[in-house]
Design brief:
The chain has 5 helices and 6 strands, in the order H-E-E-H-H-E-H-E-E-H-E. The chain has 137 residues and is an alpha+beta fold. It folds into 2 domains: 51 residues, no CATH class; 77 residues, 2-Layer Sandwich (Alpha-Beta Plaits), CATH 3.30.70.100. Helix 1 runs antiparallel to helix 2. The longest helix has 19 residues. It is rod-shaped and about 90 Å long. The two termini are 52 Å apart.
């Protein structure tokens, strides 16, 4: 916005121009410059306002969480950094929409379509990365 303000200042300010014959003329920016500045300003304002507009869309995470979910208890998570590998490993399974792992609760919630991967498949994926599935809720 500061640069846009400077652009308006330099476009609309009165400046003195010295001609070849020594005469002085007071002029401002050309009409083309003014028109371009207003077009850019409108574009910037539109881009600035878009995040604040509610266009009736839902975020992808809302859609992912809209389906059925199953929660599993996991052993072997030692820190919050363990959440990401679990989410990545289970997120690639067919039928899984979203995965939320929680180190604090020692569990993972899988949001899925009607066809959840078999518990054995989930257990194998977790074993590959060093975690153990204990039970489902």
């Amino acid at each position: 916005m500061l640069k846009l303000s400077a652009a308006f200042y330099y476009t609309y300010r009165k400046r003195e121009v010295i001609c070849e014959d020594g005469s002085r003329i007071i002029c401002r920016g050309s009409e083309k410059s003014k028109r371009s500045l207003w077009i850019v300003t409108a574009f910037v304002l539109i881009l600035f306002c878009i995040p604040y507009l509610n266009l009736g869309t839902t975020s992808p995470t809302d859609i992912d969480r809209a389906g059925i979910h199953t929660t599993f208890t996991i052993e072997g998570m030692t820190c919050s950094g363990c959440e990401t590998p679990v989410e990545l490993a289970l997120g690639k399974l067919e039928g899984v929409n979203n995965v939320e792992a929680s180190y604090a609760e020692k569990q993972v919630t899988i949001y899925h379509s009607a066809n959840i991967p078999e518990e054995q498949v989930i257990k194998q994926e977790l074993l590959k990365i060093g975690y153990n599935l204990t039970n489902s809720r």
